[in-house]
Design goal:
mainly alpha, 2 helices, flat
């Protein structure tokens, strides 16, 4: 209950965004390959930010 108002760290926010982008890329891969590739590229950039943040910690 006390964790209800706990703020998420930057890494947690980025991981959630990464998961959302990867799911969207997968769903788009069935219908629109170029849009899927774009979403995958966005997810890759988010992954690089996550790695940079975890490496500096």
């Amino acid at each position: 209950m006390f964790g209800l108002f706990k703020k998420k760290s930057e890494v947690e926010k980025l991981q959630k965004k990464y998961q959302r982008l990867m799911k969207e890329a997968f769903d788009l891969s069935k219908s629109n390959r170029s849009a899927s590739d774009t979403k995958y590229a966005e997810a890759d950039e988010v992954q690089k930010k996550i790695e940079a943040l975890t490496a500096s910690s």
